[in-house]
Design goal:
Length: 266
């Protein structure tokens, strides 16, 4: 049963349409990855899924109800957004940042309760960052910040996460750790929609992939079905090699660089 459904969705900005005819759905326990070149409309689509931009056409349903019919607090108790971790200016402690995820569950003039603090602590524990609680958010590393932003979203106790390039600007180790957490979170029953620029990450954590170009979804299906060399050539204009890697237990995808092709063929 689908948790979020977009049907023939058109989206964009006032006077600047970005995409249309987008039909997508994500169920609880499922990870849907959006793959597409820079500027194809992923972030604009996310803003629309999050109710921050009104749909320009089509339908957008959360638990079978129009997203526009939810109050912001009702929506935030169901769906949490994980932005990219760059740029951190406010000198909050990591614990305070994570506690902000409770905003939709705290009355306007009330202070966080013991339950709110426990939820924030539990979220930091889940993400393995409890030891960072008293550090200043702008002073922890990019990977730690990304984990703190995911913890903030989890403290919200949502049923769904929308994650904008959750592995962008992370080192090799932190990318792997974030991908593992995403897989764990979907196993725990969350619906997850994420965007990524690495097709290999779709094989690593997604159940379904949507290929986007020019504001349209070109194909949707399992990673094995839709992440093909031909499809990636069409999306990005580069040649790639895709192969099952025994030791990793999944497919991997690498661009075949002209220099390597010459060496291979010589
Ligand atoms: N506030 C805005 N007003 C008008 N057009 C915008 C606005 N923000 C983005 N756009 C345009 O919408 C289109 C899609 O941008 P969007 O940021 O959604 O792409 P994206 O797929 O997320 O790109 P990237 O992978 O580079 O993050 C682009 O042509 C962009 O210039």
């Amino acid at each position: 049963m689908s948790f979020l459904t977009a049907a023939d969705l058109a989206f964009g900005y006032r006077g600047a349409p970005v995409g249309r005819d987008v039909t997508l759905s994500v169920a609880r326990g499922e990870v849907l990855a959006l793959l597409g070149p820079n500027g194809c409309g992923k972030t604009t689509l996310f803003k629309t899924l999050l109710g921050l931009l009104p749909p320009r056409g089509g339908r957008l349903l959360l638990e079978g109800r129009e997203v526009a019919a939810f109050t912001r607090a009702e929506f935030a108790r169901r769906v949490a957004y994980v932005p990219q971790a760059h740029g951190a200016t406010f000198p909050f402690r990591v614990r305070e940042m994570v506690l902000m995820g409770r905003a939709s569950r705290i009355d306007t003039f009330a202070t966080p309760s013991a339950i709110d603090r426990q939820a924030a602590d539990a979220a930091m524990e889940t993400l393995g960052i409890a030891h960072l609680a008293d550090r200043l958010f702008p002073e922890v590393s990019g990977g730690e910040r990304q984990m703190a932003l995911i913890a903030r979203a989890l403290a919200q106790e949502p049923a769904m996460l929308v994650m904008d390039e959750p592995t962008a600007s992370l080192d090799f180790g932190n990318q792997a750790r974030v991908l593992e957490r995403i897989a764990d979170l979907s196993r725990s029953g969350l619906a997850i929609v994420l965007s990524t620029h690495d097709p290999g990450h779709a094989f690593a954590c997604a159940h379904r992939v949507a290929l986007m170009k020019g504001g349209r979804v070109l194909a949707t299906g399992s990673p094995q079905e839709v992440v093909t060399a031909e499809a990636l050539r069409g999306l990005y204009g580069v040649e790639v090699a895709i192969a099952y890697m025994q030791g990793a237990g999944r497919h991997v995808c690498v661009p075949t660089l002209t220099r390597n092709e010459k060496e291979r063929d010589s």
